[in-house]
């Protein structure tokens, strides 16, 4: 395959070289989406010290982001003390939001890399993901209702959990669709903002949604 720069032939690439370049590009995207810096050597040739440097950067950033989640819980401490049953569902809710966001981000970033989704498709992407997430939200809301009923939780908490699952799932669809496309628009590789980072963002904001809904239904301060 010829290599052209500014209309001039500067070289050529063999089939194996093209395959190697594509493999490197995909590998880099996979590493970034897993919240680690790309590896420049085969895995078994890399020392633990190098792996530490590659992974610790993103893990420290995620640590700071997770600290925000802890701050949200601390802010709503009085609400938790007034209705301790709310605490039982925190792992379920933030896990669901993060998982939903990760699914969307991984699919969308890969589709953008393949050229299947472009910036002009943002409206279509958001509509598609909102519709899909609404169906998923209803499913998860019913599952949450069943889970709360099986635990013997009161009707108010059951309603709060079910409604929160719906809201968090829809919110994760918006965040996970808009952020990668926005980054692409400003010239930043969407794979750089890894799925774990978006999941962490959804965790913190999802808790705010949860406690605000709880405050409304339970009349908590």
From TrEMBL:
The highest taxon in the source lineage is Bacteria
Q: Where in the cell is it found?
A: Membrane
Q: Which GO terms describe its cellular component?
A: membrane
Q: How is this protein positioned relative to the membrane?
A: Multi-pass membrane protein
**Which InterPro entries has this protein been placed in?**
SLC41_membr_dom, SLC41_membr_dom_sf
Q: Name one GO molecular function term.
A: monoatomic cation transmembrane transporter activity
List the transmembrane segments. Answer: 57-76, 82-109, 130-151, 157-179, 191-211
Q: Does the record carry Cell cycle as a key word? A: no
In what residue span(s) does the SLC41A/MgtE integral membrane domain sit?
A: 90-211
Keywords linked to the UniProt accession = Magnesium, Membrane, Transmembrane, Transmembrane helix, Transport
Family of the protein in this entry: Belongs to the SLC41A transporter family.
Name of this chain's protein: Magnesium transporter mgtE
| Species this protein is from | Raoultella planticola
């Amino acid at each position: 395959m010829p290599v052209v720069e500014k209309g001039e032939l500067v070289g050529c690439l063999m089939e194996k070289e093209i395959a190697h370049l594509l493999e490197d590009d995909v590998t880099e995207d996979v590493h970034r989406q897993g919240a680690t810096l790309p590896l420049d050597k085969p895995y078994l040739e890399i020392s633990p010290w190098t792996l530490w440097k590659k992974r610790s950067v993103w893990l420290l950033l995620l640590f700071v982001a997770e600290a925000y989640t802890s701050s949200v819980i601390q802010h709503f401490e009085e609400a938790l003390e007034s209705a301790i049953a709310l605490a039982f569902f925190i792992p379920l809710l933030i896990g669901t939001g993060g998982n939903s966001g990760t699914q969307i981000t991984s699919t969308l970033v890969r589709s953008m890399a393949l050229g299947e989704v472009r910036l002009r498709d943002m409206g279509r992407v958001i509509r598609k993901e909102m519709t899909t997430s609404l169906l998923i939200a209803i499913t998860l809301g019913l599952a949450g209702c069943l889970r709360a009923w099986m635990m013997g939780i009161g009707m108010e908490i059951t309603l709060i959990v079910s409604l929160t699952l719906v809201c968090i799932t829809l919110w994760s669809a918006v965040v996970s669709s808009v952020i990668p496309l926005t980054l692409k628009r400003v010239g930043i590789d969407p794979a750089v903002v890894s799925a774990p980072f978006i999941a962490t963002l959804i965790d913190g904001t999802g808790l705010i949604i949860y406690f605000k809904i709880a405050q409304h239904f339970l009349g908590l301060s």
